[in-house]
Structure to design on (224 residues):
């Protein structure tokens, strides 16, 4: 199993550009989520999905869109990049949601810089 | 006030020392998660626990639900233990994780 994969590993954007961060998992996990990690702050939830076709907002959703057309893929779209979105982005997946006690598996991260 | 507080913020130890990292939380939880992040690397789950104590190799995690406190202990520390250790708690109906800021541990040879 590849686990959770993310592409790209690094990306530099100019303000106003759009892009999609890719996330895929091959563990048949229902629950997937996107976090951002900023210096001096804990990981913060951007969006999450409890299954194909179902997504919801997390703590810091503004400026980001997600969709979940398949169980495997959960892309994160930046519609119009801003310098405040400079961060390291992690995708994670787990077997189930709903408050269940379940291990989360993290991707390797995408380091995004917005100029 | 952050829902998850970790202490100390940074920690330096000598190889072989016994290390304790603390995590306190202010909300009701269903489970607590300890994670490890190496410099430039990804995040790996070390433990999940909802009560008592768990042990894996040189790592021991404990939790006291009544006191809303958990500790991660590292016995016979080694430079390869140098990493950021993150505490996260499960809250809410959809396994939403709330993360602490992490503790940066440096173990000197």
């Amino acid at each position: 199993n590849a686990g959770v994969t993310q592409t790209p590993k690094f990306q530099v954007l100019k303000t106003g550009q759009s892009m999609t961060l890719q996330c895929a998992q091959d563990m048949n996990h229902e629950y997937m989520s996107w976090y951002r990690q900023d210096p001096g702050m804990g990981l913060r939830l951007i969006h999450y999905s409890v299954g194909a076709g179902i997504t919801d907002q997390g703590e810091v959703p503004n400026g980001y869109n997600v969709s979940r057309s398949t169980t495997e893929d959960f892309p994160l779209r930046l519609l119009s990049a801003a310098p405040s979105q400079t961060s390291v982005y992690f995708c994670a997946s787990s077997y189930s949601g709903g408050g269940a006690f379940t291990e989360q598996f993290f991707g390797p991260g995408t380091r995004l810089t917005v100029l | 006030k952050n829902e998850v507080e970790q202490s100390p913020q940074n920690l330096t130890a000598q190889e072989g020392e016994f290390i304790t990292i603390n995590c306190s939380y202010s909300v009701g939880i269903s489970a607590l998660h300890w994670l490890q992040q190496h410099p430039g690397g990804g995040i790996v789950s070390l433990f999940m626990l909802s009560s008592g104590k768990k042990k894996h190799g040189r790592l021991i995690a404990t939790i006291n639900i009544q006191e809303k406190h958990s500790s991660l202990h590292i016995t016979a520390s080694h430079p390869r233990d140098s990493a950021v250790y993150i505490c996260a708690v499960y809250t809410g109906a959809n396994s939403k994780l709330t993360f602490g800021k992490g503790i940066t541990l440096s173990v000197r040879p």
Notes: The CA atoms of residues 16 and 80 of chain A lie 4 Å apart. The mean pLDDT of chain A is 93.
